Structure formats: structure tokens, C-alpha cells
Amino acid sequence: MSEEIESHILKRYELIKKQGKGAYGVVYKAMDKKTKEIVALKKNFDAFQNVTDSKRTYREITLLQELNGHDNIIKLLNVIKAENEKDIYLIFEFMETDLHTVIRSNILEPIHKQFVMYQLLKALKFIHSAGIVHRDLKPSNILINSDACIKICDFGLARSVMSLTGKDIIMTDYVATRWYRAPEVLLGSTKYNSQADMWSVGCIFGELLNGKPMFPGTSTLNQLNKILEITGKPNKEDILSIQSELTQNMLENINNIKQKNLKSLFPKATAIELDLLGRLLQFNPNKRINVLEALEHPYVADFHEQYAESEIECEKPIKLDINDKAKYSVKEYKQKLFDGLLKRKKEVRKKIVSMNLNTHSNNSNYINNQQQNVKNNQQQNLKVNQQQQNLKVNQQQQNLKVKKKKINNNSKYGK
Question: Which domains does the chain show, CATH number per domain?
């Protein structure tokens, strides 16, 4: 797990500052020597160490390429192999910090919090319309700059919610940092959907309002206990909505719940803020507000009315080239990833060539048109000159006639 950046990377990128290090890699602020653009250079340690890491690497890179272009999703600029065949380098657009750090700094004004929530919902509308569940939404996975513009990152745990047949696929329960996991995930459901992300949004919103995590559980049961203190014990309909046989047994192990009122936990929050928070933090995913409904909520109404045209959906559902239920080897994940990268590069080159040809064609047409215009102008000028010359000749002939007439008259009268 060396932090050292290999020479072939340093030929292209100049390191400026180490931004941070985690279990999966190290991130540097860097400059692209060719374009002079400031970027984030991430070295992923042992990206293909085992099947789990290989799958995560494959998912993140593939999904980021597919989701590329949305203002509130981090843009992956380049992917470069490491010489040791174990690590991998990812080049992203640069963002100054993350929401976790900003919340701890307590520097956001209410209008900033509204803007952050609006952008988060706008990004999720795009992601969910593509049939993708992020599954690991938390403040540290939301990057932010000094203008309070945010971008969602880290799609290593993201999954498609639909299979090729259109039915719910089997989802794993071990996802996301525990504090931001939805009740259905904690209770072992394998049929959850994009509403799991909306629970995470509720947790993030509560943290924005209060400056600290809402449900800092020390275990799964402790986490559920903290959740039920807010939502109350679920009824039969709520339990059935989880679609997990473990639900009843796990809930029976939780006793003496003292339900707390959101208003008492957030005494400074407005009625509109509490309403949105309550709608997001519904135990039953079917009763939980979805992303389209959340964008219509009064809390983000000002931004929604102003930027509604930018609330785009993905053109089509995103389907990975591999079956997420099947088991592949490290070698197969790696091969599939780099085959996909090569294919995409070829498509980009083909597009650039096509654009250049169109540009050349347009330029040729423009030049031809300009040449024709010049020719037409020259002909017009010649015509005008000819007319002027004819007028001049006619005038001269007229003058001669007048002179001759005068001469004749003078001769007639002997003058």
C-alpha cells in the first residue's frame, strides 16, 4: 500500500498537495501538465486484490463513466493502470472538501443547507432514473466547494435495482456506513430499492440541521433502537413492507423504546424543515417520500422553481455488462473493466474524428460560400462599373451633341 506515485503518472501530472488517505487509497491535488487543469489524483490501493475489491473497482469506474455529465456527480476524467498491475489511478475533477468536514466546521448558513439538499435531490433524480441505487450516501461521499456546489462520489457499492427481466434483484444487506443505513437494510431485506437512498438523505439532512449524526449506533440492534426512538414501533403493514423474515425476530429483541419528538431533538428547526425530515425518516419505505416528491417540497421550492430545467433524468436505464448475481474471478473483472475502457476510448476517438470531419465539412462549405460571395460581389462590381462607364459615355456623347449644335448655330449666324 505504497503512497508513492509511479513515474509514468508523474510525467502527466504534477502533485501539489496530499488531500487525504483512507483504507482504499490516497488522494492528491494535482495539475495536468498538458491542460494545466487542477485535478484530484486518486491512487486506489490493491484495486484487484480479491473478488470483492475487484467488483467494487469495476462498479465504480463503469458507473461513473455511464453517469458522466451531471453537474452534481463527480466527473471521472481518466483511468490509468499501475505498473504493478495491482493498483489503479483515477483522475477526477477537483473539489475542495467534503460535506462531513464542512458540517463539523459549522460554517453553513440556512440558505447553503437548502442549496446542498436541493443539489443532492437533483443528483438522485438522475441516478434513480438510471435504475441505480447508490447505497453508500453519507456526508463524506458528498464533495463540496466554496460556492456550496456539491458532487456525489464513491459509487463502489452502487447497484442496479432492476434485472434484465425487470424484477427486483437480490441485494446484499452489508452496504453503507451503519449510521446511514435504512431500516430495511439493517433488517436484512434483499429486495430494497431506491427508497433506501432517501433514508440516507434524511440522515444527512438531520446532520445538516443539528451538526451531528442522527443515529450513531454501536451495533445493528443499537442502531435499530435509535431509529425506533424517532419512528416509533412499526405496525404490521410496516413490518411487511421490509420484506425480510428477520424483521419480527429482530424487533422482538428491542424493548423499552422511549419515542422522541423531532421538535424536541431539533428545537431550532422550522416547521418546513421538520416536515421534510419526518417524511424522509419513515420506517416503511413505501411511506417514505421519494426523490420526485422531495423536489416538490417547500423546503427546496425556491431552487426547484429557478432551476427546474436542470433536473434531468438519465436517457435510459444503466445495465452493467456483467451479471451482478454471478461470481467472477479477479482476472475476469479486470479484463472486463479494461476492455470496457478501451471500447469507450475508441468510441470517444471516433466521435472526435466525426466532429472534426463535420467541422472540416462545415469549414469547406463556409469557404466555398465565401468564395462564391466574393465572385458574386466581383460580378456585381463589374456590372456597376459597366453601367457607370455607359453613363459616362452617354454623357460624353450628349455633350458632343450640344457642342456640335452650338457650332452649327454659330456658323449659321456668322459668328
Answer: 7-92 (3.30.200.20), 97-320 (1.10.510.10)
